[in-house]
């Protein structure tokens, strides 16, 4: 059976946060964070969402649906987001690969270098 409190405690400890520090980040007291970790209370959706953002995980992860970490691209420009989404699609492509880089991969790498090197 899934242990929500343990998942929250593990995430908090992985991020080197005390219960008090996590509480400050999500607008709750140390005792409330403790009650979440001890499965006495479940956080409301807004607090759970804030926790996911603090821990850089999908909202599914704290509730045990998904075990994959996520990376937030919220602070990136639309062009940077577009390049990264295209790169992810390219990496997920399972069609047979050629030796070396394809023209598309070279284009993506060039785009990444140009976009992220510009201040």
UniProtKB/TrEMBL annotation:
Q: Name one Pfam family in it.
A: HTH_3
The answer to whether UniProt assigns keyword DNA-binding to this entry is yes
Which positions fall inside the HTH cro/C1-type domain?
8-62
Report a single Gene Ontology molecular function. Answer: DNA-binding transcription factor activity
* Domain of life of the source: Bacteria
Residues annotated as signal peptide = none
Task: Provide the alphabetized UniProt keywords.
Answer: DNA-binding
Tagged with keyword DNA-binding: yes
SMART domains (alphabetical): HTH_XRE (SM00530)
GO annotation, cellular component aspect: cytosol
Q: Which InterPro entries match?
A: Cro/C1-type_HTH (IPR001387), Lambda_DNA-bd_dom_sf (IPR010982), TransReg_Diox_bact_type (IPR050807)
- Name of the protein in its database record: HTH cro/C1-type domain-containing protein
Q: Which organism is it from?
A: Butyricicoccus porcorum
Phylogenetic placement of the source organism:
Bacteria, Bacillati, Bacillota, Clostridia, Eubacteriales
């Amino acid at each position: 059976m899934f242990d929500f409190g343990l998942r929250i405690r593990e995430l908090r400890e992985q991020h080197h946060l005390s219960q008090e520090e996590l509480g400050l980040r999500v607008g709750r007291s140390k005792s409330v964070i403790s009650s979440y970790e001890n499965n006495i209370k479940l956080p409301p959706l807004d607090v759970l969402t804030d926790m996911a953002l603090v821990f850089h995980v999908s909202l599914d992860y704290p509730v045990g649906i998904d075990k994959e970490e996520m990376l937030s691209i919220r602070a990136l420009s639309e062009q940077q987001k577009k390049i990264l989404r295209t790169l992810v699609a390219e990496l997920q492509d399972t069609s047979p690969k050629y030796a070396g880089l394809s023209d598309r991969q070279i284009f993506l790498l060039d785009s990444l270098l140009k976009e992220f090197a510009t201040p």
